[in-house]
Design brief:
about 475 residues, alpha/beta, Alpha-D-Glucose-1,6-Bisphosphate, Chain A, domain 3, TATA-Binding Protein, seven-stranded mixed sheet, 15 helices
Length: about 475
Amino acid sequence: MSSDAVQSQSWPASAFKAYDIRGTVPDVLNEPFARALGRALAARALAAGVPAVVVGRDGRHSGPMLADALQAGLLEGGVDVLDIGQVPTPLVYFAAHHESTGSGVAITGSHNPPRYNGFKMMMAGDTLYGEAITALATEMNRPLPEGVAPGRRRATDLVPTYIERIVSDVKLARPMRIAIDCGNGVAGAVAPALYRALGCEVIELFCEVDGDFPNHHPDPADPHNLQDLIRAVAEHDCELGLAFDGDGDRLGVVTRSGQIIWPDRQLMLFARDVLSRNPGAAIIFDVKCSRYVAQEILKAGGEPLMWRTGHSLIKAKLKETGAPLAGEMSGHTFFKERWFGFDDGLYSGARLLEILAREPDPSAVLEALPQAVSTPELKLDTAEGAQFELVRQLQERGDFAGADRVITIDGVRAEFADGFGLARPSNTTPVVVLRFEADDEAALARIQAVFREQLLRFAPGASLPF
């Protein structure tokens, strides 16, 4: 491929998402795309005074090809590359901190089907999102500047360093027996060794990295994907089970009795722990989380701070506020206290075990966390882009009768004395995301009726998912 082979192409707009670059291989993402992206990121790195960029990839079959092409572009652009190989996405963030570059690219399709892949990017300490991603489509067509000396590539294995760093700080009061389900995602390359190093007896499920995901999809947000783990916890008399998504940055938790502890309830426990050492601190959570999150933060002496959904947006808010902890309903949890402020499902699991190892019955502690009647995320399909206009109408003209307050930082969250309803536009797919929570079924139905009326007012004939 000549040095100009990546110039003057029209890159698929669909690949440039709100929080990352993502698409199917090879029709959307391929070698020319990855190489051009590497060159564009190299230009940004040089402009920001960044000498080197970390590159890691998940277990998808297209990962090596995309990694090689991306690195070729970075090197051509005059930036050094630290190749850390096949690792969970949090290892890329860890390496960026450990190597003091603040810059890295994780090549991952996360929990998407096998044909997908993507790029999560951070540059000079900031995670790229929004316009910083969409602008790359233009930057990827710019020619290389004259006289740039090519960068150098170095390969290294940082997994032992990562495990050592966690084990040096996270201490379990006693050994625990746990089951872990990696769904054949890349977390399987690290999680068993990490939790054994912490002193756990580990029952492994689907820890062999396989980009075909032959057993179940690596997405702990779907209850169906947790059934194998629930069975394993019961069969092996484990104290709890941990599950990870395809690239290891989200955590799922199940108890001995088979109850799923959703991430907003996990966050309540983390908040109590962190606030015991950081009284009065702000704890950030996204608009999809339970009302109980704010209540538990207040009870523990903290300041609840609701923010917009999206791991990049949460990370930016964490940096802005200096909060020691943040979390999303999706399962991304961000520890700034004792860690680096990035989302890491493996590290979150370690911190959870540290808290629960002090208790004689960890599952009882988890199941005692406050819980309301609620729906999972519901999705209202729209035409491409129409989700934003529908939610704008709800924000500007919606009538949420009886609500104590209507929060519009990210869609519409109408809070009532006995529950809440949420409608927010997805930044990645043409859907309006809906979620409802209430003290009882009657209140849930009443709040849903309010939202049903308003949604149909602005989208007559819509096929509502509730």
